[in-house]
Design brief:
Length: 354
């Protein structure tokens, strides 16, 4: 099954970003991405959707939206919306109703940056998700690169350090976000995890120091969402868009931090009696299920069941595990980069049911 690299959750100058859709497409082409999804705040800008090319290389630019209630202070409960062909920002006041409208329109919704801490030194508010009684959403943004950066802004010295050495920022999703995801999947519901760059190409200054924080190109070489598609991209916008949205809906997805080493080629499968599945799928336990993991590089691999590590492999590229108990099984992979153990791959689960 073909794999593509997708970067999602980003902003243009139509909202609070500094670049254009063309700037994003150019950066995506340089980064070697297959697709991007632009999500300006409370604004659905449809005119730029399509394939962009440079020589023999092309990238599919899709348009979604990041919707939140602008009358709320602070403006929490940000929702990433994909695959909806009409503007729904006017429904933001009631999150449950907004999600129902998205479902009725055949779209997908993901809780954006569920944990997004304040950075008071830089007048950045806490934009964490609050309405946990909502239902019907597709999933959550497990790893938001900009939210993680905010966790590093504990002093002006740290801010300068990471602004000039951005490769040292990323270590993995915020741990509390992972715990929330595990609690949600433990209820028996499928909750798809995605990774978002939250790219703005922000212009920042501190005294005489001026810097573009994380240009689009840097973000696009970092936290990406990799999709397993039913067939290769065809070059036809509508057909390819439908395949991408379906892979996101089904959770045929893993989050890859591609800066230390490309994560393309990661595989996570489950095989049982007359059935084989990939991440995002369900499989009955029956007489047992064998989990198979393949990594692009020999490194550390951890198998998680219901939020708890059940097996760790060191310096391995292929791993297998015989499952004898039902549960929600997922994979975390770690790599050493710039002197630290960093999160590299986070898979969606295989749901092994009774």
């Amino acid at each position: 099954m073909p794999e593509i690299a997708l970067n999602l959750h980003m902003h243009t100058r139509y909202s609070d970003g500094t670049g254009s859709h063309q700037d994003i497409a150019d950066a995506a082409l340089k980064a070697g991405l297959d697709a991007v999804i632009v999500t300006d705040h409370n604004l659905l800008v449809r005119d730029y959707e399509g394939y962009y090319a440079r020589g023999d290389q092309k990238v599919l630019l899709l348009v979604g939206e990041e919707i939140h209630d602008q009358n709320r202070v602070p403006e929490k409960n940000h929702l990433l919306v994909f695959g909806v062909e009409k503007e729904l920002a006017g429904k933001a006041e009631n999150t449950n109703q907004l999600i129902k409208h998205i479902q009725q329109a055949g779209g997908l919704s993901f809780l954006a940056h569920p944990i997004d801490p304040a950075a008071p030194l830089f007048n950045e508010a806490d934009y964490s998700w609050e309405d946990w009684d909502v239902s019907g959403y597709t999933g959550i943004e497990l790893w938001n690169a900009l939210s993680e950066f905010k966790t590093r802004l504990n002093s002006k010295a740290e801010a300068i350090f990471y602004a000039y050495l951005p490769k040292r920022v990323a270590r993995g999703p915020i741990p509390e976000t992972i715990r929330i995801w595990d609690r949600l999947t433990a209820t028996g519901n499928k909750v798809v995890a995605i990774g978002g760059s939250d790219a703005h190409a922000l212009s920042a200054s501190l005294g005489p120091l001026k810097r573009t924080l994380f240009p689009y190109l840097f973000h696009f070489r970092g936290v990406n969402t990799h999709l397993i598609l039913s067939s290769p991209l065809s070059g036809e916008v509508d057909r390819d868009k439908k395949m991408i949205l379906e892979a996101l809906r089904e959770g045929h997805v893993f989050i890859g931090y591609d800066l230390p080493y490309p994560t393309r080629g990661f595989q996570f499968k489950g095989s049982g009696t007359n059935q084989s599945v990939i991440m995002g799928d369900e499989i009955p336990l029956r007489k047992g299920v064998t989990i198979q993991i393949s990594l692009p590089l020999k490194t550390e691999c951890v198998l998680i069941k219901d939020g708890t590590a059940v097996k760790t492999w060191q310096n391995r590229q292929t791993c297998s595990y015989a499952v004898t108990k039902p549960g929600v099984y997922r994979v975390e992979v770690y790599i050493h980069y710039k002197g630290l153990r960093r999160g590299w791959i986070f898979s969606n689960p295989i749901y092994i049911r009774v």
